[in-house]
Automatic annotation (TrEMBL):
Protein name: UDP-N-acetylmuramoylalanine--D-glutamate ligase
GO BP terms in the entry: cell division; cell wall organization; peptidoglycan biosynthetic process; regulation of cell shape
Catalytic activity: UDP-N-acetyl-alpha-D-muramoyl-L-alanine + D-glutamate + ATP = UDP-N-acetyl-alpha-D-muramoyl-L-alanyl-D-glutamate + ADP + phosphate + H(+)
Protein family: Belongs to the MurCDEF family.
Organism, as annotated: Rasiella rasia
Amino acid sequence: MNRRLVILGAGESGVGTAVLGKQRGYEVFVSDFGKIKETYKQVLIHNNLDWEEEGHTVAKILNAQLVMKSPGIPDNAAIVQQLNEAGVPVISEIEFAAQFTEATLVGITGSNGKTTTATLTYELLKDELNVALGGNIGKSFAEQVSENRYENFVLELSSFQLDGIKNFAPHIAVLTNLSPDHLDRYDYNYQKYIDSKFRITMNQTEADFFIYDGDDSEILTWLENHEIKAKKLPFSLHKEVAEGAYIKNNELIITLHNTKQTMPLASLGLQGQHNIKNAMAASTVATLLKIRKATIRESLERFQGVEHRLEKVLKINNVMYVNDSKATNVNATFYALDSMETPTVWIVGGVDKGNDYSELLPLVNEKVKAIVCLGVDNEKIKRAFGNIVDLIVETAGMEEAVKVAYKIAERNNTVLLSPACASFDLFENYEDRGRQFKEAVRQL
């Protein structure tokens, strides 16, 4: 009998799962509540898959044996609740695809830095291993599993993807850090969000590894109160660790199985404390997977970061324009503002996911000369910073925001897009937002 697999959401993860499901003998039906992008539609048609858009036919969904839900669909969506009541298992793409590969899996999650860390890890591995990058970044994990040509995967994993796992167990798990994010999806309960991130290690065994920020108080508190089976490897900027990574005398030191590797910090291509941490996490993974020290060092020197993360766009009239569209929460913006070395015109705003802006106040006071709001509702931003920034301007779209910033900025200033919010009010996603920013800067 063909098992019936229903897929909710025909984006990257949904369409990848559909292709893999059909390949593995499932009867597949894809249902999207919105419109399906033309590129994805063509893949569905090409693979002779059954699909629908702009609505769910409940009868064709509830008769599934298994449902893969795209990470963007919340658990409280009506169709998901109906599936739960009917007792149909609802899982994520990561859970579905993992059962069809024997590859070594590296899973990377965290509130910030996970894209940079995952991309950097992939860069460190790719010269010596047969490896693919996927998950919340690039091509879907499921689609790449269907190609059946990779022995290793580096997966960037969001909390939403981890919410939908049951047996998924990466050989190496990385937790970059924790700070409040997506609280709108977790009943505004930070503890629920933290527990969701730690699902990355729940199925690991004593033969697996858990790499984490040993300076992060939330991570340390959770580990004090919960047992995990995997071998713990912290990385720290402030203390020496017996096994893991730390900094001493401006060198990055990695200790594993009683052997030490060192490399000078000055040679890192990425600067800033958060990037040193990303490099520590990635280098620990590479060392575990027996990548040569020279390869690790060369890759770290070469790596210049990822698009939309503190990406220098252009210098115009001695004003640097920086695209940090990927900063979708307060903590990410904290890193961005912290790295600013000249007076900054800060473009901020979007869909607020329960943000607390108070931790930014000292940095904004020190670094920001003007705020340009970019969102449908900016009241919270104006309330938070109205007393410490003299000039706050509201704008209706990216082009206007960039033009206003251009007028305000003076020589040797920086214009920083670091929204601290999700992008769905005015943009498709943070990539679209970042590209629109870059285009608007080039049009100046």
